[in-house]
Amino acid sequence: MDTSSKENTQLFCKSSERPLGRPSLTTECSSSKEKQQCCGELKVFLGALSFVYFAKALAEGYLKSTITQIERRFDIPSSLVGVIDGSFEIGNLLVIMFVSYFGAKLHRPKIIGTGCLIMGVGTLLIAMPQFLMQRYRYEKYSPLSNSTLRISPCLLESDNQLPISVIEKSQSKRSDECEIDASSSMWVYVFLGNLLRGIGETPIQPLGIAYLDDFASEDNSAFYIGCVQTVAIIGPIFGFLLGSLCAKLYVDVGFVNLDHITITPKDPQWVGAWWLGYLIAGLVSLLAAVPFWCLPKSLPRSRSREDSNSSSEKSKFIMHDQTDYKTPLGEKSKIMEMARDFLPSLKNLLGNPLYLLYLCASTVQFNSLFGMVTYKPKYIEQQYGQSASKANFVIGLINIPAVALGIFSGGIVMKKFRISLYGAAKLYLGSSVLGYLLFLSLFALGCENSDVAGLTISYQGTKPVSYHERALFSDCNSRCKCSETKWEPVCGDNGITYASACLAGCQTSTRSGKTIMFYNCTCVGIAASKSGNFSGMMGRCQKDNGCPKMFLYFLVISVITSYTLSLGGIPGYILLLRCIKPQLKSFALGIYTLAIRVLAGIPAPMYFGILIDTSCLKWGFKRCGSRGSCRLYDSNALRRIYLGLTVMLGTVSIFLSIAVLFTLKKNCVSKHRSFRTKREGTMVSTTIRKENYTTSDHLLQPNYWPGKETQL
């Protein structure tokens, strides 16, 4: 029995002495278990990352849907709204370089989880002003509606309809309101909340995508990234649909009696329950942080990754010859050594012409996209006369799904046809060219200005010579004591909108529920060139009959354009990942994200908003007399600014993308010639070439596809 035991022991020891490189049965079993565990944990990470992308995209989409609501609620111009929107990118700017560089050596899932908590708190902070501000007050006819006095809209200079005590009380009330209004700048809470959202969102993209790309097989990497990006597009769908739902609810729902509200969602002064969606989005972000605290710091790498010598960021971060970073599990990272290598790594990255050109092309293109998406709801409202609720609904239900389908299609095409790096660059360029060509057709799908007396049309029904606000006064209302700062639009029987019932020259009024009718409007009679009892109704007149048809065409072209532009998203992302050294992947993604945030995300909403403000025809005024938000835009000028700026930036990005393609082609030809020359040499030179052949050089081969880098 003892002899048999010794023989078995010797046999086991002999079997353990296997040739180098040949795995034993025990090793194979262990490898199989690790592979199954890695696959399961990687899928958990994929699901968690997808949910985080959904959460952050939900909040971002909802923010875009509430741009006009925030503008009206806080009575601020579009340029200031652009600053609030850009605060998200400012938050990214504060920490992106440190997170993307040092985060690659730390526990990436836990860093992402911490970011989700910060992002959730910031989203909840945005909704705080609703609970701190006074109730929303809009401009409405007859602010003394509780008075038993019957007041005519047109206060004739010869009349003395109001007692002095009533006038003094009204002036005293406005003075008190002015003092309260001057001491409150609650939009700062929205700014700070969005800033925190930006800080919390920082580690999600560079660390999350790099983590996926490190531990997924190279054949599945593009597909996984496509799945994450597709889920990220689903978030804005729900964000805009949530914005559409909340826009139908009055801003102070639950705080005031809605029976006393005289305006409807179609009124330009209507403000929906913008704060409600932020409470929901904040809770979703907090929930998304939970799974990341249960995930490991690193996963076993796939066999294809090991065979291709594509080192992970954990084992080889900056230099191939620096073995100090190959720390055993549990050893602390050497922060000082990483800090010393920061500048050399940055120089190495920016010295890559392909990466630098792609960075410039993407930055310019994102300027175009950020500005277009931020003010698209406003454009639909002002250009086609749609309500904020409907504008958000069509964007969320029609436009964004086209973007999701385009991104997913790009990932499928890359995986199915195994397109080379050069082919990916051509697909990226082709989608941009075709997309912006289609976008040009939107110039012909606009609506004409609404007929507003004194602003877009004269009181006699002809086009005015000047848009100066003094044109609001005419002979028909010269006897009335009218304010030129008020915006209480009245739609006359002649189809012309008047800035107020007083400026329409209306003498009497009646109210039935929320409907207010005005009669004996002298200015309405002048435009109609007839005599009689001309009336008007509270609210703006609808756009011309051809505008709904133009809006339908706009939606069709917009959907096709969105799909075409997003089709090049994944090819462009693969181009970014494959034109750099693998050990600099997180750092490169961080720099890329930093450039997009700083040079596109922050300035684009600002200068888009500033230029859009130049097309304003009628500004609103706050109680203290300072300028508020715009009440009426020049449709033609708005269309030229919004579409023209988008196309101009898109054209510049196309030229830069052409430069990327030519640079890649030049490198491909150069590397191919060098390959042929070295192949004709001796076996010694071939061996040396194999040892010194870097991953980034081979990425430029014309027939390259992830997984083929070991084939010579």
From TrEMBL:
Catalytic activities: L-thyroxine sulfate(out) = L-thyroxine sulfate(in); L-thyroxine(out) = L-thyroxine(in); 3,3',5'-triiodo-L-thyronine(out) = 3,3',5'-triiodo-L-thyronine(in)
Gene Ontology terms for molecular function: bile acid transmembrane transporter activity; sodium-independent organic anion transmembrane transporter activity
NADP found in the keyword field: no
Membrane topology (UniProt): Multi-pass membrane protein
Gene Ontology biological-process entries: monoatomic ion transport; sodium-independent organic anion transport
Residues annotated as domain Kazal-like: 470-525
InterPro entries: Kazal_dom, Kazal_dom_sf, MFS_dom, MFS_trans_sf, OATP
Top-level taxon of the source organism: Eukaryota
Residue ranges of the TM segments: 80-99, 111-132, 222-251, 271-295, 354-373, 393-413, 425-445, 550-577, 589-612, 641-664
This protein's UniProt keywords: Cell membrane, Disulfide bond, Glycoprotein, Ion transport, Lipid transport, Membrane, Transmembrane, Transmembrane helix, Transport
The keyword Glycoprotein is assigned to this record: yes
GO cellular component: basolateral plasma membrane
All residue ranges annotated as the Major facilitator superfamily (MFS) profile domain in the record: 45-668
Subcellular location field: Cell membrane
Family according to the record: Belongs to the organo anion transporter (TC 2.A.60) family.
Name used for this protein in its record: Solute carrier organic anion transporter family member
